Amino acid sequence: MIAKKFKIPKKHIALILQKGESFDSKLFVIRFWENKVSFPRFRIIVSTKFAKKAVDRNKTRRRIYEALRLIVKENSNLRPLDIILIPKKQILTKEFKEISQIAEETITKL
């Protein structure tokens, strides 16, 4: 799991979803907004539309957070953004390596 300081507070999520910029990648829809802290913060939103079983939603969320943790650990020069990732259904069939690789490419593009 990613450290708590790297998670977006719940009260900021609605603002980012409304006013944030949008970016579409192969496995994610991303909404992002500049933040006032010196490091990037993340939040994953996985709805019941994505997968009916909570097991699948939680597994997806854990895999993405782990990929993000590794990205933050390796890259110290990431822009200070609040980033909300909304996974697409194709992510359920992907291996962790592929998820991690696509997440890193996407996050570093922002």
Task: Based on the model shown, name its key terms.
single chain; 110 residues; alpha+beta; Ribosomal Protein S5, domain 2; 4-stranded mixed beta sheet; 3 helices; 4 strands; 41% helix; 20% strand; globular
Notes on the protein architecture:
The protein is of the alpha+beta class and 110 residues long. The protein has a single domain, classed as Ribosomal Protein S5, domain 2. Helices cover 41% and strands 20% of the residues. The protein is built from three helices and four strands; from the N terminus they run αβββαβα. It has helices at residues 10-19, 54-74, 96-109; strands at 21-24, 28-34, 41-44, 81-87. It has a four-stranded mixed sheet with strand order 1-2-4-3, sandwiched between helices. The longest helix is centred in the middle third of the chain and has 21 residues, at 54-74. The protein is globular and about 35 Å long. It starts with 9 loop residues before the first helix and ends with a helix. The relative contact order is 0.25. The mean pLDDT is 93.
